[in-house]
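Supplementary Note 3. Input sequence used for the single-chain structure prediction.
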Amino acid sequence: MSGHSKWSTIKRKKGAADAKRGKIFSRIVKEIQVAVRDGGPEPEANPRLRLAIQNAKGANMPKDNVDRAISKASHEGSNYQEVTFEGYGPGGVAVYVECMTDNNNRTVSIIRSIFTKKGGSLGTNGSLSFLFDRKGVFTIPFGHLDREEIELELIEAGAEDIEEENDVFIVTSALEDFGNIQKTLDKLGVNAENAELQRIPNTTKKLDPESAQKFLKMIEDFEDEDDVQNVYHNLEMTDELMGILENS
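The predicted structure, written as discrete structure tokens, is reproduced below.
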């Protein structure tokens, strides 16, 4: 799990001053619209929408953008559908891609093309499920929090792992405890910078630095696509590779 956590940290650092903020907002808008379609426009009665709004705040997305997305979905609905793709990248590293699209044929073509051009292969759905566990992952800024109190409360709520990464806690929970962690944070008045269900690899694969960089370029190509919401992989993020990424 540590390799996944390290990669999440790198993405967070790069994303903070990143030119891709527009893409981040676009992905949040899609999540809001699907949440409204599936559960209604009232956050109090719609946990998925409540979470999407919280993540919008964590990404510093303007409130007007959030309100417009909710209003549009309420009046026009949403034709986005959630689709996933599984395959292997160069070196046999597993890749799991989550998409939200209004044109499935377009998305299939894009994902297959990236796998092929980068020396990977698209597999069948379900073929990699055994390599990933669905976990809740929360990124919580320290701020002026009483760290010891927060840790004790989160452990009691079901946190499996709490890591300190510079100015944040990265908290991991089992899928079934995701809601408990969220309720505990609400009770404590703590706002997570980001909270989501992620696919955590239960085993990792190590590549040499050159091959690893080629693989991560493929991951970046996936993440640059508008239809892609999240990308997960089981590449082992070694200290050497982390150093290369931090200086890139």
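The mean pLDDT is 89. The first strand starts at residue 81 and ends at 88.
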